[in-house]
């Protein structure tokens, strides 16, 4: 729970920045306010504030991982209500130490999520306006919620069941219940879950494959989601933000994409956000001719 609380606070700080042009100084998005249901934004904030008071201060942890590629995020809009203004240490590499990696990594915010969120903010008119966005492997929902705040008509966040409660809370905390929906999409049961999804104009994923075992299920899920959307919509875009951690894993990824009749094109780094770009992180547009 502590990990969840921290990442939600981090998410709020991130989204406040992404939404500046959309939200304005008042911090309210026109036409997308109002909280429904028993789990209101105010109750969530109060519950998490009380929870933090009950948890003793965390002891320093030494991680054998590289530091963040980008500076801590610290914004005005999320400073008073949601908690103290402070940055977050963004781990540049995932730490896979058990078979429950999907649940564990869902509790972290990765550099690729920031890069893709800021890229889509920069190109929102092209990719987000009046579009339905589906995020695969949402984790904390950084990319999808950023899309909702930057102008997407509708957003579907998807992940394994254990990650869904945080995704729902984040939608409430960012006042996006009317825009953001949360769906279970376990890549190992993709056939069962994809049929429950609405067609999406844009399918996005950030840092979702880093070990060999994930590649096949991811490509299968992407293929099913793409084909289901393409059967209804004339045009479907796929954008993958990826960081290489193993050349072997990358080779499997692109070979399986090729076998699934996908092609891809890498986005020039100069088209990414000026402050959120790195030669280690690449954005790919995936398509079928």
Q: What does this protein structure show overall?
A:
InterPro entries: Methyltransf_16, SAM-dependent_MTases_sf. Residues 74-102 are annotated as: Disordered. Keywords: Signal. Residues 1-24 form the signal peptide. With 289 residues, this protein is α/β, with parallel strands linked by helices. The protein has one domain (1-289): Rossmann fold (3-Layer(aba) Sandwich). It is 38% helix and 13% strand. The protein contains 11 helices and 7 strands. A 7-stranded mixed beta sheet has the order 3-2-1-4-5-7-6, with helices on both faces. The longest helix has 19 residues, at 212-230.
Short note summarizing the structure:
It contains eleven helices and seven strands. The protein is α/β, with parallel strands linked by helices and 289 residues long. The chain has a seven-stranded mixed beta sheet with strand order 3-2-1-4-5-7-6, with helices on both faces.
pLDDT averaged over residues? 77
**Broad shape:** globular
Strand proportion: 5-15%
What is the CATH superfamily?
Vaccinia Virus protein VP39
Signal peptide: 1-24
InterPro entries: Methyltransf_16, SAM-dependent_MTases_sf
Region (Disordered): 74-102
Pfam families: Methyltransf_16
Write the layout of secondary structure elements.
Elements: H1 2-18, H2 20-23, H3 41-54, H4 101-105, H5 111-122, H6 124-127, E1 132-135, H7 142-149, E2 154-159, H8 164-173, E3 180-184, H9 190-194, E4 202-206, H10 212-230, E5 237-243, H11 247-259, E6 263-266, E7 281-287
Parallel strand pairs: 1-2, 1-4, 2-3, 4-5
Antiparallel strand pairs: 5-7, 6-7
Helix pairs in contact: 1-7, 1-8, 5-7, 10-11
């Amino acid at each position: 729970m502590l990990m969840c609380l921290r990442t939600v606070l981090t998410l709020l700080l991130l989204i406040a920045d992404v939404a500046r042009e959309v939200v304005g100084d008042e911090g309210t998005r026109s036409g997308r306010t109002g909280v429904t249901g028993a789990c209101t934004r105010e109750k969530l904030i109060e519950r998490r504030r009380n929870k933090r008071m009950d948890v003793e201060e965390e002891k320093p942890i030494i991680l054998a991982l590289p530091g963040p590629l980008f500076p801590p995020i610290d914004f005005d809009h999320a400073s008073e209500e949601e908690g103290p203004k402070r940055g977050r240490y963004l781990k540049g590499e995932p730490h896979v130490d058990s078979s429950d990696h999907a649940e564990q990594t869902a509790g972290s915010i990765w550099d690729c999520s920031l890069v893709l969120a800021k890229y889509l903010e920069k190109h929102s008119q092209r990719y987000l306006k009046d579009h339905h966005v589906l995020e695969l492997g949402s984790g904390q929902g950084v990319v999808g919620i950023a899309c909702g705040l930057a102008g997407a008509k509708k957003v579907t966040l998807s992940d394994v069941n254990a990650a869904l409660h945080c995704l729902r809370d984040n939608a409430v905390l960012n006042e996006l219940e009317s825009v953001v929906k949360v769906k279970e999409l376990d890549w190992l049961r993709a056939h069962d879950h994809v049929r429950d999804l609405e067609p999406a104009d844009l399918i996005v994923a950030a840092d979702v494959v880093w070990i060999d075992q994930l590649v096949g299920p991811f490509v299968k899920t992407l293929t099913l989601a793409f084909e289901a959307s393409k059967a209804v919509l004339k045009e479907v875009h796929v954008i993958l933000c990826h960081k290489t951690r193993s050349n072997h894993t990358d080779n499997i990824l692109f070979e399986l994409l090729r076998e699934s009749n996908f092609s891809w094109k890498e986005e020039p780094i100069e088209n990414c956000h000026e402050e959120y770009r790195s030669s280690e992180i690449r954005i790919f547009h995936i398509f079928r001719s």
